[in-house]
Amino acid sequence: MWRSCAPSWAPPPVPVAFTLGARDVRAVGLAHCRRPPLPTGPVPVGSAAAPALHYPLGDGTDPAAWTALKALTEHLRTGGG
Question: What is the mean pLDDT of the chain?
Answer without folding.
Answer: 94
